[in-house]
Amino acid sequence: MARSTKRSLNELLVSLFNHVMDVEAKAIITEEFSDISNNDMHIIEAVGVEEPRNMSLIAHKLAVTVSTLTTNMNGLEKKGYIIKERSQEDKRVVHVILTSKGRRAFFHHRDFHKKMIRAIVKDLGNEEMEILYKCLKNLDRFLEPDKSAELGE
After folding, report:
1. Which of 110, 99, 92 is nearest to 56 (CA)?
2. Rounded CA gap, 77 and 60, in Å?
3. Do 33 and 108 meet the contact criterion of CB atoms below 8 Å apart?
């Protein structure tokens, strides 16, 4: 790949990252959800709508410490997005459940991502989508905290 193409690819990735963060924040932090941040939305996404998740699992999914997550969860609980409950089997374990307000935020955020994916793949054939997926998977592996430290980059 030519040097100028690599440079252009890097500039495009930086631009995409910045645009996604800006557009996502504007799209998902509506009047209904004006009391939370984009970061809070990602925490709500990590909690999910299936069965209750414990704090350790959510922290791992978000690549943060449980103590960092606890601070954010306390805010989300006060604002009515989540409920924290102690496990009946092990009192040290705290499960997190989305309230109806939290579920509305979850689906609002999910819908934004669905629209974004539709926009990305709208003109791609199956083979092109497979190539795009492989490229993004490679980028994801590179960006994993443990992997990027190993690569020394």
Report:
1. 92
2. 20
3. yes
Could you give the dihedral angle defined by the CA atoms of residues 142, 146, 148 and 149, in that order, rounded to the nearest 10 degrees? -170
- How do 82-86 and 94-98 pair as beta strands? antiparallel
Regions of the chain where pLDDT drops below 70: 1, 145-153
Residue 106, CA distances (Å) to 50, 111, 149 in order: 11, 9, 32
Does residue 44 contact residue 109 with C-beta atoms inside 8 Å?
A: yes
Q: Which residue has the tokens 């941040």?
A: 37
| Predicted structure pTM score | 0.79
CB atoms within 10 A of CB 139: 10
> For the chain, what percentages of helix, strand and coil (3-state, to nearest 5) are there?
70, 10, 25
| Residue 63 structure tokens | 């690549």
Q: Are 81 and 102 in contact (CB under 8 A)?
A: yes
SS3 75: helix
> For the CA atoms of the chain, what is the radius of gyration?
18
Residue 49's CB is within 10 A of a number of other CB atoms, namely 13
**What token pair was written down for 61?**
């999914």
Question: What pLDDT is recorded for position 105?
Answer: 96
